[in-house]
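Worked example 3 (structure in, sequence out).
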């Protein structure tokens, strides 16, 4: 079942920290976070802010070419940052062990999840970023708890 978490409107870069704090509060319930948005919408920027809140001391960058980056946090263990923009097919993502990461119980932040639809766990959170006027964003966070919706 899909449950809306929160909507952030007119978000500039300076408000990303507030959203990152909200996401960190939800990490106990949802470990896999899917980030949707156009190129340049702020997916990586938001994930970097989440890293700061988690106490990542390494410089975080987009794993565009490596596909996955691993970071050590202060008090939260490891976190994984995926970028599937350059993969050719789901088999390529599967071959790097996405199942092991996604079901590890550790936080996974995934850019371009639309490239791996059948690999996404039923329990996950979506972060949809829509850019307006080149500087302002609307960010919608929703939660997918694995339950099927009853349809009448």
């Amino acid at each position: 079942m899909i449950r809306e978490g929160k909507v952030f409107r007119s978000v500039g870069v300076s408000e990303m920290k507030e959203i990152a704090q909200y996401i960190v509060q939800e990490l106990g319930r949802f470990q896999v976070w899917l980030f949707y948005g156009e190129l340049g919408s702020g997916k990586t920027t938001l994930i970097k802010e989440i890293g700061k809140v988690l106490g990542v001391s390494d410089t975080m960058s987009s794993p565009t070419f490596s596909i996955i980056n691993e970071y050590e946090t202060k008090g939260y263990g490891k976190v994984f940052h995926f970028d599937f923009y350059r993969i050719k097919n789901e088999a390529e993502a599967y071959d790097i062990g996405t199942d092991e990461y996604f079901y590890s119980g550790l936080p996974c932040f995934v850019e371009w999840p639309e490239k791996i639809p059948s690999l996404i766990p039923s329990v996950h959170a979506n972060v949809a970023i829509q850019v307006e006027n080149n500087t302002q964003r609307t960010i919608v966070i929703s939660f997918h708890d694995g339950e099927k919706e009853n349809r009448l």
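Notes: Helices lie at 16-25, 43-54, 90-95, 98-102. The mean pLDDT is 88.
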